[in-house]
């Protein structure tokens, strides 16, 4: 596995690969890798000649008081896991490499960023699109791989790539979970032992909601049940629970073909998100 730290070196390497006719699959991460990230690598390896992974804790997507400084980092551990999983090139630039100067130019994600996590994290998805624009240009992938756990981010990225004619495909990969249902996340290591026992209740509430939505088609009734279930988790506070059309993230309508039931729950040292996508058959009102 080749490791690259400099922006210029990454750009040169991807140009050479493109000239050789090699297809590139790209897996962007913020590191502290887990099985969810490695599932993205496996999917990329099936469809591409070369797999590039980036590890970059992006300061542009963290707001004041958020956990940028305390976000878990272990580059050497991550490099070993990436190489074992089949990554060919690991790009791990510093913030100074990625953002050598201040820029007044902004990329605004629009209406899709005003709900769910975006409602309480203004500017977060601006930062996500900012870094991905740079990473896409530097790595030149034919395909980029994202987990369904970050469903709002995924919907925004799909819209951005489609609307602005980026020459790549976005591949969705299903959420990878622990045996008890908890979605794999780099932030899970910051749960206390007791919180770790309680956290699977998030997915349990979403599963119950999905079943109920398929049976009743009444999103308001379902949403009340999900919120009540999340409110009973002893050491947690729910930031939100919502049911929306996916991937538009608009309110459900009679034309909705798929719904997302999404939640964010805050524990003492970690804020966890999760979601379920529910195919619809015209049952919503």
Describe this structure in words.
With 285 residues, the chain is an alpha/beta fold. It has two domains: 2-173, HUPs (Rossmann fold), CATH 3.40.50.620; 186-277, 2-Layer Sandwich (Pantoate--beta-alanine Ligase, Chain: A,domain 2). 39% of the residues lie in helices and 19% in strands. It is built from ten helices and nine strands. It has helices at residues 7-19, 35-47, 75-85, 95-98, 116-120, 124-139, 151-163, 193-198, 201-216, 219-231, and strands spanning 2-4, 24-29, 50-55, 89-91, 143-147, 169-173, 237-245, 258-266, 271-279. The chain has a six-stranded parallel sheet with strand order 1-4-3-2-5-6, sandwiched between helices. Strands 7-8-9 form a three-stranded antiparallel sheet, with helices on one face. Helix 9 (201-216) runs antiparallel to helix 10 (219-231). The longest helix has 16 residues, at 124-139. The chain is globular and about 55 Å long. The termini are far apart. The model has no long low-confidence stretch (mean pLDDT 95).
Describe the global form. Answer: globular
What is the helix content?
Answer: 25-40%
Biggest sheet: strands side by side, in what order? 1-4-3-2-5-6
The SSE string, one letter per element, is EHEHEHEHHHEHEHHHEEE
Task: Quote the beta fraction.
Answer: 15-25%
CATH topology of the largest domain: Rossmann fold
Which residues sit in consecutive blocks of at least 5 with pLDDT less than 50?
A: none
Q: Would you count the extended β strands for me?
A: 9
CATH class descriptor of the largest domain = Alpha Beta
Radius of gyration, CA atoms, in whole angstroms: 19 Å
The CATH architecture of the largest domain: 3-Layer(aba) Sandwich
Mean of all residue-level pLDDT scores: 95
Spatial separation of the terminal alpha carbons: 52 Å
- Count of alpha/pi helices: 10
């Amino acid at each position: 596995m080749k490791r690259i730290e400099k922006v210029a070196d990454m750009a040169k390497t991807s140009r050479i690969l493109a000239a050789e006719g090699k297809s590139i699959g790209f897996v962007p991460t913020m590191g502290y890798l887990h099985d969810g990230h490695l599932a993205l690598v496996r999917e990329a390896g099936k469809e591409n000649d070369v797999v590039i992974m980036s590890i970059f804790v992006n300061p542009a997507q963290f707001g004041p008081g958020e956990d940028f400084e305390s976000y878990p980092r272990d580059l050497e551990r991550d490099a070993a896991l990436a190489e074992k999983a089949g990554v060919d090139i690991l790009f791990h630039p510093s913030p100074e490499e990625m953002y050598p100067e201040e820029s007044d130019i902004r990329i605004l994600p629009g209406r899709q960023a005003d709900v769910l996590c975006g409602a309480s994290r203004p500017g977060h998805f601006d930062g996500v699109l900012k870094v991905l624009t740079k990473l896409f240009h530097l790595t030149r992938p034919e395909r980029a791989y994202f987990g369904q756990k970050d469903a709002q981010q995924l919907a925004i990225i799909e819209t951005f790539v489609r609307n602005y004619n980026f020459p790549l495909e976005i591949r969705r990969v299903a959420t990878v979970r622990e045996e008890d249902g908890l979605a794999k996340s780099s932030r899970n290591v910051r749960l206390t032992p007791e919180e770790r026992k309680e956290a699977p209740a998030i997915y349990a509430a979403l599963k119950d909601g999905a079943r109920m939505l398929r049976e009743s088609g009444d999103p308001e009734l379902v949403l009340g049940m999900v919120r009540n279930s999340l409110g009973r988790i002893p050491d947690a506070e729910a930031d939100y629970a919502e049911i929306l059309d996916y991937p538009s993230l608009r309110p459900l309508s009679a034309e909705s073909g798929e719904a997302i039931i999404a939640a964010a729950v805050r524990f003492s040292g970690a804020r966890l998100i999760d979601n379920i996508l529910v195919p619809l058959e015209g049952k919503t009102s």
